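User: Just a sanity check before I run the rest of the batch. Below are the structure tokens for the first item. I only need the designed sequence back.
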């Protein structure tokens, strides 16, 4: 028999997996049969998967939703670094994650947009 703390950790891990699967399903358009308004009607599945890979990599590198503690303009500057890596230096993928620099930039812009839209509070911490 496992102790309560171990059981909670195990259940949280299972919940995180289910949340991820539901997020993917929602993004792919299985929400209430509304496929005509699905994200994959506009963005190919492989692109969504690449963005999710970036998010997973970021979550393991910066756990605890650390992105919410960074100002939107810092996210936008970080996105521009990824764009420069692609357009100026000609590198398609980031070495550490193996993901496309463009996907990293998109994620950083999405974080900034979420903050500007009020989905998460804006902060004034200037670190990445």
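Assistant: Here's the designed sequence for the first item:
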């Amino acid at each position: 028999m496992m102790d309560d703390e171990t059981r909670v950790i195990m259940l949280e891990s299972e919940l995180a997996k289910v949340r991820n699967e539901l997020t993917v399903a929602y993004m792919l358009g299985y929400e209430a049969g509304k496929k005509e308004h699905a994200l994959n009607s506009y963005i190919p599945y492989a692109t969504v998967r690449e963005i999710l890979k970036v998010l997973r990599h970021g979550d393991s590198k910066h756990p605890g939703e650390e992105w919410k503690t960074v100002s939107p303009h810092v996210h936008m500057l970080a996105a521009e670094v990824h764009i420069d890596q692609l357009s100026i230096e000609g590198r398609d993928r980031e070495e550490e994650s193996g993901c496309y620099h463009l996907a990293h930039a998109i994620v950083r812009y999405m974080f900034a947009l979420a903050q500007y839209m009020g989905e998460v509070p804006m902060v004034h911490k200037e670190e990445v």
